[in-house]
Structure formats: C-alpha cells, structure tokens
UniProtKB/TrEMBL annotation:
Segments of skewed composition (Basic and acidic residues): 46-61
BP GO terms, sorted: cell morphogenesis; cell motility
InterPro entries: LRAT_dom (IPR007053), LRATD1_LRATD2 (IPR043299)
Protein name from the UniProt record: LRAT domain containing 1
Length: 262
C-alpha cells in the first residue's frame, strides 16, 4: 500500500491544479498540468442482470426499495466526518433504474451498485440522461441503458461537503463532456461525479498538496470483524482503496491505526 500512497508525492505545489472554490474552473487552469488517469477500476461492463449479484427474491426487474449486502464506511479528515455510508445513519436501499428516474432531479448524484464491482457514479441531467466518466471519456448516456440491470440510489449526502447549487453542478458536468483519456484528471466515475457536485479539487488526481498534518482516515465496518481504520495521504487515494474493497471485498495489507481494530 505504501507504493500506492506515495505515487504522486513527487509533485511540488507549483504542479498542482488550482481552481475556483465555486467549482467553476476556467479551461486555462487545466493547461500544462499532468494528471494520472487509470481505468483499472472500470465499473460499467457487459454483465447481464443475472450476473449482478441479486438473488431470485431481488431481481433487477423489481422496483425496490430493498437492501443489498455491502461494506459500510465512514471517513474523516482532521477529525471532521467527510463521508458516511452507514446503514444505521442513512437509507442504503436501492431501486430499479426505472424507479430511480422518478426520484431524480437535475444535479443529483447517483450511484449504481452490483455485487463484486465498484459502484458506478453519475450526475443526473434530465429526461433519463446522466453525465459520467466511462472508459476514459466524459459522456452523456441513458440511465436505463448504463444501469444494465443494476440498482441504484441518490447519494447527494454521502459526502459531507457543502454542495454547489444544481445549476453549477450541471455546468461542471456539461462543461467537461467529450473530454477523453489524456484530458481527464479523475481516476474513476465517483471522483468525477463528486467533483461536479462539490467542486473540490481534492477529488482530482494530484489535486491537493500533501502535509504531515493532513491525513484521511477511513473506517471500514466489516461484518463480524469489527472496525478497521486505514490512513491515507489524499482523498483520491482513499477513494481508490475504498472502491477496490467494494470490488473485491478484501482488505490488503494497509496502514492501520490503533492496530486496525476498534
């Protein structure tokens, strides 16, 4: 894990991307900045609905709501909770894509889930259309088509940052349509969609300066084995590891705090 945590620490501050706190970043701010794109976590694939991990009692054709078996998390930066996915604190039920469409508003943050895959995130536009990062491209697609039998939910409150107004969220998303692999500064669909909604450059690869004082702590709530606390140097590193755990269900040998269990 040490290599993963250190992979962008060679950057000096002058090489880091900057941006307007409002999330309205000007095109020229992206010029000359080296970013790192990886599609090793590509989530939306060609699985059939029967491959998505839903049981006979919870087929993809059902409207929901119903629950799926998932790892639960909470995350902190400087003792402030910045992310929470805990069933005891929020509704983690999922719905069919058709039902989800009746619940969405422009600018909503959506998450599509399936067993043994990292969740796929997108920004809802309107009329069944979402904007998302897929296969190294920022694109607009039909939610019904990209769901491919997966169920989903609205996750506007998953991150605890202050959201941008819906029109600015959409401006962020639409303004990056068509960007491809060499122009993209997000490593997965979640980082892109969350950046659109919150406008924080920490969601970009290499988007924050590292300091000894600032660390991110991810609490992994594993059924039957307590809470494991992991430490990271950047939000992006934390997101990538959490998504890897979602896809594999396995914790690698990581930097653990307080022995790893509480």
């Amino acid at each position: 894990m040490g290599n993963q945590l250190d992979r962008i620490t060679h950057l000096n501050y002058s090489e880091l991307p900057t941006g307007d706190p409002s999330g309205l970043e000007k095109d020229e701010l992206r010029v000359g900045v080296a970013y790192f794109f990886s599609d090793e976590e590509e989530e939306v694939d060609d699985r059939t609905p029967s491959d998505c991990g839903f049981t006979k009692d919870h087929s993809p054709a059902e409207e929901g709501p119903f629950s799926v078996s998932e790892v639960e998390y909470s995350a902190f930066c400087s003792q402030e909770c910045i992310f929470s996915k805990l069933r005891e604190n929020e509704d983690l039920n999922v719905y069919s894509a058709k039902t989800l469409l009746t619940m969405c508003k422009p600018g909503d943050l959506l998450e599509l889930v399936a067993t043994a895959q990292a969740p796929h995130w997108a920004i809802y536009e309107q009329d069944d259309q979402v904007i998302h990062l897929h296969k190294g491209e920022i694109r607009k697609d039909s939610l019904l088509e990209i769901s491919n039998g997966r169920h989903g939910r609205i996750v506007n409150n998953r991150y605890r940052y202050r959201p941008l107004p819906p029109d600015l969220v959409m401006q962020n998303a639409v303004g990056h349509l068509g960007l491809s692999r060499d122009e993209i500064c997000w490593t997965n669909s979640e980082s892109f969609a969350a950046w659109c909604r919150f406008g924080k450059r920490e969601f970009k690869a290499g988007g924050e300066a590292h300091s000894a004082e600032q660390q991110y702590f991810l609490k992994v709530h594993l059924s039957g084995s307590g809470v494991h606390t992991l430490v990271f140097r950047s939000l992006e590193d934390m997101i990538r590891e959490r998504r890897r755990v979602d896809a594999s269900g396995i914790l690698k040998e990581l930097s653990l705090v307080n022995g790893g269990k509480e």
